[in-house]
Design a protein that fits this description.
The complex is a heterodimer. By secondary structure, chain A is α/β, with parallel strands linked by helices. Chain A contains eight helices and eight strands; from the N terminus they run αβαβαβααβββαβαβα. Chain A has helices at about 5-15, 25-35, 50-60, 70-75, 80-90, 120-125, 135-150, 175-185, and strands spanning about 20, 40, 65-70, 95-100, 100-105, 110, 130-135, 155-160. The longest helix of chain A has 13 residues, at about 135-150. The N and C termini of chain A lie far apart (about 45 Å). Chain B is of the alpha/beta class. In chain B, about 45% of the residues lie in helices and about 15% in strands. Chain B has helices at about 15-30, 45-55, 65-80, 90-95, 95-105, 130-140, 155-165, 175-180; strands spanning about 35-40, 60, 80-90, 110-115, 145-150, 170-175. A six-stranded parallel β-sheet of chain B has the order 2-1-3-4-6-5, sandwiched between helices. The longest helix of chain B has 15 residues, at about 15-30. The two termini of chain B are about 20 Å apart. The chains are: A alpha/beta, B alpha/beta. The interface of A and B includes residues 50, 52, 81 and 191 of A.
Chain lengths: ~190, ~180
């Protein structure tokens, strides 16, 4: 399975009012290719901080589904966050891990421990219900099941090696994008 | 019968000095509209964190690493909810990358309450480096911080949180032993 069809399956299964947190690197590249209509928070550096960011957003917006698209390299940088997420267990947080086994946006160097390590087992061991998909049909089934019912969960999307790709950089700073995201999500509700 | 550290506030039961400090901090958080707390324990902080955990009005997220608390607070903020991070000052050293790249770069305000270990009120040699380095690191990061010496200064909790949201950046309170344990 290639990253772009995997992202297309996610896009097809989401509702217009779902909120997406999209990790950086090739995951961001694949999601941006879909020109998603869902409100999306685009990650930047630092790597490793986005699972906890998605958790905070899910806890703040319990009536919206928060879909977290995460690269495997990003997840590896802070694996302990899986236990924090499992402990909080927001029913509206759904994780899709783009697992190509490499730092694709940095040139394709392999992740440590690959291919022997088992990300799905790591997630399950931390307390996150996790399915795995090796092709598009499995991805469709696993993601549909994840989205069908309330409850924290993850799907590991096993991807083949592809040429390096990086998430696109728009004209706005992250602070400006953050403000735009908040105005779309919250309207002009005061926060300061 | 003494209240256990995890019991909710009960006005008939006299509070220990640590519980009194915790109640003052909780009142400050609530006055600032904060109802989500991400924490990682320190011996000085446990009375506070467990009292927060016992309060249904708060969502309490238990962290395994302090930089995840920066992420939780940032995500909560963009979702319209106010959050605080409670940790040891060494956790702010660990979270320096998240503070710079997430909280400052994306301008996601939150209040951090950190036990200020390693100064004159501490008695462990291995805590000393924290007291010696944390203020300099926060200064280098350009994260505003205030040292809170004792219970009489805990009104800063509400005011520092309000400063964070006004300035769109994290604000840190470094809490000395007397500000947490009385």
């Amino acid at each position: 399975m290639k990253r772009s069809p995997a992202a297309a399956i996610v896009q097809r299964l989401l509702r217009p009012d779902d909120v997406v947190v999209c990790g950086l690197g090739s995951t961001g590249f694949a999601w941006s290719e879909q020109q998603p209509q869902q409100l999306t928070y685009w990650a930047s550096d630092p790597m490793g901080i986005w699972p906890s960011f998605a958790l905070g957003l899910a806890l703040a917006q319990p009536k919206r589904r928060v879909i977290f698209l995460e690269g495997d390299g990003d997840l590896l940088m802070n694996l302990q966050v899986l236990l924090t997420i499992a402990g909080a267990a927001p029913a509206n947080l759904k994780m899709a891990v783009f697992h190509n086994g490499s730092y694709a946006s940095a040139g394709g160097s392999p992740l440590p421990g690959m291919p022997g390590a088992d990300l799905a087992s790591i997630c399950r061991g931390a307390g996150v219900a996790t399915a795995e998909a090796a092709d598009e049909a499995e991805a469709e089934r696993a993601l549909a099941a994840l989205l069908a019912e309330p409850g924290l969960g993850a799907v590991i999307l096993r991807l083949e090696e592809e040429p390096p790709a990086d998430s696109p950089h728009g004209p706005w700073s992250q602070a400006e994008d953050r403000a735009g995201f908040m105005r779309s999500l919250l309207g002009d509700r005061p926060f300061g | 019968v003494r209240a256990s550290p995890t019991s909710v506030y009960h006005p008939q039961v006299p509070l220990t000095p640590a519980e009194r400090c915790a109640e003052a901090i909780i009142a400050g958080l609530q006055a600032a509209g904060i109802d989500l707390v991400a924490s990682l324990p320190d011996k000085w902080l446990t009375p506070l964190a467990e009292r927060i955990d016992a309060r249904p009005a708060f969502t309490h997220v238990r962290l395994a690493s302090e930089d995840d608390g920066v992420g939780v607070c940032a995500g909560a903020f963009v979702g319209g909810r106010r959050a605080a991070l409670i940790c040891q000052n060494a956790g702010l050293l660990l979270a320096a990358n998240a503070l710079a790249g997430m909280a400052l770069h994306h301008q996601t305000p939150f209040l951090a309450l950190a036990a200020h270990r390693g100064a004159y009120d501490d008695s462990f040699f291995y805590q000393v480096y924290k007291g010696q380095t944390v203020e300099g690191v926060l200064h280098a990061l350009e994260v505003p911080f205030y040292v809170v010496d004792d219970e009489s200064q805990l009104g800063l909790v509400e005011r520092a949180a309000k400063q964070a949201y006004l300035a769109r950046r994290p604000v840190v309170l470094l809490l000395r032993r007397q500000a947490l344990l009385g």
